[in-house]
Amino acid sequence: MTLSASPISSDITTSDKVYAPQEDSFLLIEQMTTLPGGLVGKTVLDFCTGSGVVAIAAASSGADAVTAVDLCPDAAQCAHDNAVAAGLDIDVVVGSFAEALAAGPYDVVVSNPPYVPAPAIQDQSIRLTGPTQAWDASVDGRLVLDPLCAAAPDLLFTNGTLLIVQSEYSGTRQTVDALRRVGLHVDVIAEQRVEFGPVMKSRATWMWEQGLMDEGCHEETLVVIMATKR
Ligand SMILES: C[S@@+](CC[C@H](N)C(=O)[O-])C[C@H]1O[C@@H](n2cnc3c(N)ncnc32)[C@H](O)[C@@H]1O
């Protein structure tokens, strides 16, 4: 599938095995490309790169070196192909925290991790086909967020910046507190109210039954959290 919903994603190609860029991707890109000081000359890690859309935006914005990490080989191949098609030199790595840490630290770390709360044992009636690993993140949505917060100081150079995008339903406060606990300076720098997409629509009844959201809710707030290492 070639996406044309946004100028940023117009040249990004995905498949049914790879997360197609959407509002969370675009919100993260908007915040990353308007960071004070810009990206020129910086080293950037895009952790959980998927199609590579955020990494490509970083490289297009003048980053000196971009590393893109994803544990899904299909996603990594997709990110590599999109980078080559864009004529950009991005180091795409199949892996997770160990690989990201081994190639770091970085001036800027960006991540749109899986953050959708999901039943511990998947109920086939609410499980969508496709790359559920791209969004499912355990009952509290924090399967990747918590280790990412814990790893943040080691991923960043001093004065480095981390940007994470997530939903209010995976614990904005928990992310802010977790990043402060590891010594980072933290702000919520962007919020965007969006209609539920197909995944959240499919989860809404389960989340309501679990007490994770109000009945009848059909919108969520996406947030971008910025953390700096001083
Ligand atoms: C929500 S998608 C984001 C894709 C892309 N960055 C974007 O914004 O459009 C999350 C991605 O994280 C990857 N992923 C999930 N768990 C991971 C982990 N522990 N380490 C690295 N990548 C992971 C998935 O394979 C998926 O491609």
What does this 3D model show about the protein?
Belongs to the eukaryotic/archaeal PrmC-related family. Keywords: Methyltransferase, S-adenosyl-L-methionine, Transferase. InterPro entries: DNA_methylase_N6_adenine_CS, Euk-Arch_PrmC-MTase, PrmC-related, SAM-dependent_MTases_sf, Small_mtfrase_dom. The protein is of the alpha/beta class. The chain is built from 7 helices and 7 strands; from the N terminus they run αβαβαβαβαβαβαβ. Strand 2, helix 3 and strand 3 form a beta-alpha-beta unit. Helix 1 (23-33) packs parallel to helix 2. The radius of gyration is 17 Å and the shape is globular. Residues 1-7 and 123-130 have low confidence and may be disordered. Bound molecules: S-adenosylmethionine (SAM). S-adenosylmethionine binds at residues 19, 21, 25, 48-51, 53-54, 69-72, 75, 96, 112-114, 133-135, 144.
CATH topology: Rossmann fold
CATH architecture: 3-Layer(aba) Sandwich
Distance between the termini: 42 Å
Roughly how much helix do the residues carry, as a percent range?
25-40%
Task: Please write out the topology.
Blueprint: H1 23-33, E1 43-47, H2 53-60, E2 65-70, H3 73-85, E3 90-94, H4 97-103, E4 106-111, H5 145-155, E5 156-167, H6 172-181, E6 185-195, H7 198-209, E7 219-228
Parallel strand pairs: 1-2, 1-4, 2-3, 4-5
Antiparallel strand pairs: 5-7, 6-7
Helix pairs in contact: 1-2
Bound molecules: S-adenosylmethionine.
S-adenosylmethionine (SAM) binds at residues 19, 21, 25, 48-51, 53-54, 69-72, 75, 96, 112-114, 133-135, 144.
